[in-house]
Amino acid sequence: MTKKIQCLISAGPTREWIDPVRFISNPSSGKMGYALAEEAVARGFEVDLVSGPVSLTPPPGVRLHRVVTADEMEKTMKELLDRAHLVIMTAAVCDHRPKKQWSEKLSKEDFPKNLEWVKNNDIVRGLSAARKNGQKIIGFAAETTDAMAHAAEKLATKGLDWIALNDVSQKGIGFASDFNDVTLLSSAGETIALGRETKKKTAQKILDRVWP
Ligand code: C5P
Question: Quick check: 160 and 128 in contact, CB under 8 A?
Answer without folding.
Answer: yes
